[in-house]
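Pair request: fold both.
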Amino acid sequence: MGDTGQDKRIERFGSDEDIANAEAAKRQDAKDARVRLLRSKAAVSRSEADAIEAMHLDPDTLEDLLENASPLEARRLEKSEHAISQRVAKARAAAEAAEYEYEQAVLEQYDDSKG
């Protein structure tokens, strides 16, 4: 008895079950990679927000500078500190969005593993 076309296909690619298992494994690998990427993105976003926040002057230093500054210098310092605060708020919002996206991906992965 010779090989049929089905036998040759199974020999070359594996059974339908083998193919389905391989495809499921590839999908799971892609989901795992997405979760790792989103976790890294969230961590980087948090680090960026922390780095921007570190640009603020120490409160004691700022107070000393403001006491000894001319009105123009004082306005410049206040404007600079305010700009930093705005950048921090924007960076924190981006970090929270990245963390939310990561959390959603983890929950989706958990739901998929249960179903």
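--- second member of the pair ---
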Amino acid sequence: MFYLRHSYLTPEQSYGHAKALGKNEENFIKTKTKAKPFYDKVTLESRLGHLRINESWD
């Protein structure tokens, strides 16, 4: 029952556990190799340019 109430690690136990498992390197490689879900050359002007028809507010 004690472990159910206190199911967290102590600071000494949790320090460096991700590094020991290699999670940082694994996530870095996964992030670098992941395909980008967007185009590099998209700007607000190119997306909203069709809304700019006429600027004669006078």
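Observation on the second member. The mean pLDDT is 79.
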